[in-house]
């Protein structure tokens, strides 16, 4: 994950398109990492392992940390990534190796003083977020304010990128809590996939705004159909169709995200006069 930037600088091919590819794909891959971890240590008997609700909280915290890093860059112009991102990938590799060696039972037995390994990981994640990552973000923004290097002078402009992500998680959490059919328990992977894709599209637009020094839209368009779906679900209008609607909505959101990425990639490559997957320069016509 850290080698692509070094390779781009070595080949003198660093561009905004490369930054978007790197961080845009990271914003999507982050949720996939959580999904894979969920598949390793999820509950098998309803008593041990990680529950779907714990995993939803876990995913929300991970995405919140990712969002904060790019919100910080939107305001300061500097992307500060703590070592936690690299450490998390090492932890995932260790978890896969441990599971492959010992078996999934390792996640379903108490590790120390009655606590499971997953309990320790969740506590570390929450502690890292609340006491290290988020405070570091606020400190960096405050320091930029003192140095008068903030890119946005007003508090309102600085907080605009947070509106859509926070509303997104608010709507999703309402759906999780008030779903008549307990949608998260019935379709955990599909729901978590949808959460990751929707978040990725929202944050990609913030990344583009920070690169182009433009203001992001206050309300992402995903919020409007999602609000309708959530209302129809929690009010009982969907009935037994809730899972089907989730599948359709997830497919549409995924297709829209891929379409957005392809279109932006093409536009940037033409604007910068480069190829997307090649170091060769375009021939001027």
UniProtKB/TrEMBL annotation:
Family annotation (InterPro entries): CDP-OH_P_trans (IPR000462), CDP-OH_PTrfase_TM_dom (IPR043130), CDP_ALCOHOL_P_TRANSF_CS (IPR048254), CHOPT (IPR014472)
Gene3D superfamilies: 1.20.120.1760
PROSITE patterns, alphabetized: CDP_ALCOHOL_P_TRANSF
Biological or metabolic pathway of the protein: Phospholipid metabolism
Swiss-Prot/TrEMBL keywords: Lipid biosynthesis, Lipid metabolism, Membrane, Phospholipid biosynthesis, Phospholipid metabolism, Transferase, Transmembrane, Transmembrane helix
GO-annotated cellular components: endoplasmic reticulum membrane; Golgi apparatus
Positions of transmembrane segments: 50-68, 80-99, 111-134, 155-178, 190-208, 220-238, 244-262
MF term (GO), any: ethanolaminephosphotransferase activity
Annotated GO biological process: phosphatidylethanolamine biosynthetic process
Keyword Membrane: yes
Subcellular location: Membrane
Family: Belongs to the CDP-alcohol phosphatidyltransferase class-I family.
Name recorded for this polypeptide: EPT1 Ethanolaminephosphotransferase
């Amino acid at each position: 994950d850290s080698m692509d930037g070094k390779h781009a600088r070595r080949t003198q091919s660093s561009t905004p398109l490369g930054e978007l590819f790197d961080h845009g794909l990271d914003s999507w891959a982050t949720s996939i990492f959580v999904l894979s971890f969920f598949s390793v240590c999820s509950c098998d008997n309803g008593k041990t392992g990680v529950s779907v609700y714990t995993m939803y909280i876990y995913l929300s915290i991970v995405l919140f940390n990712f969002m904060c890093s790019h919100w910080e860059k939107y305001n300061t112009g500097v992307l500060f990534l703590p070592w936690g991102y690299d450490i998390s990938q090492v932890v995932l590799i260790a978890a896969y190796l441990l599971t492959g060696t010992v078996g999934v039972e390792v996640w379903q037995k108490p590790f120390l003083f009655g606590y499971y390994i997953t309990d320790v990981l969740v506590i570390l994640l929450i502690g890292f977020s609340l006491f290290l990552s988020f405070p570091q973000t606020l400190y960096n923004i405050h320091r930029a304010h003192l140095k008068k290097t903030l890119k946005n002078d007003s508090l309102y402009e600085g907080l605009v990128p947070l509106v859509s992500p926070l509303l997104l998680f608010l709507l999703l959490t309402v759906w999780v809590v008030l779903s008549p059919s307990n949608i998260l328990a019935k379709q955990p992977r599909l729901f978590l996939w949808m959460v990751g894709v929707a978040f990725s599209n929202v944050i990609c637009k913030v990344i583009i705004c920070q690169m182009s020094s433009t203001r992001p839209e206050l309300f992402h368009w995903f919020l409007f159909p999602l609000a309708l779906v959530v209302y129809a679900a929690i009010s009982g209008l969907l009935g037994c169709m809730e899972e089907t609607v989730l599948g359709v909505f997830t497919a549409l959101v995924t297709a829209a995200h891929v379409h957005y990425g392809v279109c932006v990639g093409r536009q940037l490559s033409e604007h910068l006069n480069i190829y997307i997957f090649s170091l060769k320069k375009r021939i001027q016509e």
